[in-house]
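Customer escalation, tier 2.

The customer says the design service returned an amino acid string that "doesn't look like it belongs to this structure." They asked us to rerun it and document both sides in this ticket. The original structure tokens are below, unchanged.
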């Protein structure tokens, strides 16, 4: 099956990244983001590196001493691609991005089912190319938002890619509530994301397992409220709980444990 909706979201985010990065001056390209050690330009360079890999283009031969926070081969790959472009003008990196995503879209729009069914290692385990691209929307949109926050250019928090990303991140909420926050047996948590992308999620613990429930069987022990961007920066580990505004009602200690453990990125 060809994942048309996924391709459409990728197309939208590709264009949004181009738009937010167009016309930047040197100081803006160098603006630090929430990604440790990465500027606006570095975020774009990272996106280029992964898209080149997906397009089966050669990776950089550049090597350097990786930062201490990098602890796996994927992180090393990312740092090599980023550092390889640090000496380039931001406008040149953007030009490379625009040429590359045009090529990627041509590949995706003309690929057959076999292309999307091919086995592929994904950040969540073995899967297919379609599975990888489904996660790729999250990564691209997350970095688009990293760039927007750094530049003070908010936007696109209510797009299909935004909803897709929030829903993927919410898949981990039962682990956060049950295993990490230690919600007691028979109790539950309500997470209210107030918008622009809105979600109202209830997680309950029964039989020692936490799960999302469509109809709560009991009043939540705690309710946690935050807007879309706050959820994003917490769930993607971009900012610490103490650096954002979150409302907790009910069992304050339990609710705060949920907030403190909300980082869902592997």
């Amino acid at each position: 099956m060809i994942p048309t909706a996924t391709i459409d979201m990728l197309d939208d985010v590709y264009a949004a990244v181009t738009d937010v990065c167009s016309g930047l001056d040197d100081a803006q390209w160098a603006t630090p983001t929430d990604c440790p050690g990465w500027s606006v330009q570095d975020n774009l360079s990272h996106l280029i590196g992964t898209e080149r890999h997906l397009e089966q283009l050669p990776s950089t031969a550049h090597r350097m001493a990786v930062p201490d926070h990098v602890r796996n081969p994927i992180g090393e790959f990312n740092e090599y691609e980023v550092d390889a472009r640090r000496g380039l003008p931001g406008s040149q990196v953007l030009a490379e991005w625009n040429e590359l995503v045009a090529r990627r879209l041509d590949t995706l729009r003309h690929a057959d089912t076999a292309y999307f069914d091919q086995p592929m290692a994904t950040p969540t385990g073995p899967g297919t190319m379609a599975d990888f691209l489904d996660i790729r929307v999250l990564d691209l949109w997350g970095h688009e938002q990293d760039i927007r926050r750094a530049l003070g250019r908010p936007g696109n928090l209510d797009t299909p890619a935004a909803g897709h990303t929030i829903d993927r991140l919410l898949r981990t909420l039962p682990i956060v509530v049950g295993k990490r926050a230690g919600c007691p047996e028979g109790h539950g948590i309500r997470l209210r994301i107030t918008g622009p992308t809105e979600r109202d999620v209830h997680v309950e613990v029964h039989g020692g397992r936490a799960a999302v429930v469509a109809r709560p069987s009991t009043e939540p022990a705690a309710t946690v409220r935050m807007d879309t961007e706050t959820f994003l920066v917490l769930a993607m580990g971009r900012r610490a709980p103490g650096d954002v505004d979150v409302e907790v009602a009910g069992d304050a200690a339990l609710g705060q444990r949920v907030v403190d453990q909300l980082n869902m990125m592997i």
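Tier 2 assessment: The sequence is consistent with the input. The chain is about 50% helix and 15% strand. The chain has a mean pLDDT of 96. Sent an explanation to the customer and offered a walkthrough call.
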